[in-house]
Design a protein that fits this description.
Layout: E1 2-7, H1 12-15, H2 29-34, E2 44-47, H3 51-60, E3 65-68, H4 92-99, H5 112-132, E4 137-142, H6 144-154, E5 155-156, E6 170-175, H7 179-182, E7 185-192
Parallel strand pairs: 1-4, 2-3, 2-4, 5-7
Antiparallel strand pairs: 1-6, 6-7
Helix pairs in contact: 5-6
Length: 199
């Protein structure tokens, strides 16, 4: 089985390098215009409960049944959401978080370890279900954080958490042949579903 683990298209917050987290920010006009139909036609696409994933999936996979999964949501960055690093360069809470390699808790937000556990539990359940159902393809369209958390734990070759963040409307194709025995996924290729890249 092949797994497509994709990131939503561009938003204004992405363009402005703002922490988006669980704020329900829509795609920007530029983000919508960049997207093109994907080269696969899944029957079902699993998305998060944030509208930017639904809006992206509707363009990439017209006709697919979209299944929202709350556990796939981006990390909650608490009081950092809506702000960018320039606006917080003198914020002691932000500076302490960065100094801790962004692994301590955000004020009113999630700790990276808790977020990663939530994502990995949700992701693994979707993979297990797809394999049990005999599916040949599993498509998950969520967030950069979703990609980073799941692939840091499960993907080969091993990469650091931050190395697994795909570009907007991009992501990773993985082979699940060793999942049931070892909970390992093999990277096959990267994909990008923007007009500039391939459509």
């Amino acid at each position: 089985m092949l797994i497509y683990l994709l990131r939503h298209g561009l938003t204004e917050y992405n363009a402005q390098k703002r922490y988006q987290g669980q704020r329900d920010i829509p795609l920007s006009e530029k983000g919508r215009n960049q997207l093109c139909r994907a080269d696969i036609n899944p029957r079902v696409v699993y998305i998060s409960t944030l509208q930017r994933t639904k809006q992206t999936a509707e363009i990439l996979f017209p006709g697919a049944r979209l299944v929202p999964v709350d556990g796939l949501k981006e990390m909650c960055f608490g009081s950092f959401e809506g702000r960018n690093y320039k606006e917080m360069e003198h914020d002691p809470d932000y500076l302490a978080w960065v100094a801790a390699n962004c692994e301590s808790a955000c004020p009113d937000g999630e700790r990276k370890a808790e977020f990663s556990e939530r994502i990995c539990t949700t992701f693994a359940a979707l993979v297990d279900k797809a394999l049990a159902d005999g599916e040949e393809m599993l498509v998950i369209l969520a967030h950069g954080g979703t990609q980073m958390a799941a692939l840091e734990r499960y993907a080969l070759p091993h990469r650091d958490y931050y190395a697994w963040c795909g570009p907007n409307a991009g992501g990773f194709v993985l082979d699940a042949r060793d999942w049931q025995r070892e909970h390992i996924l093999h990277l096959v290729k990267t994909v990008q579903y923007t007009k500039e890249s391939q459509c």
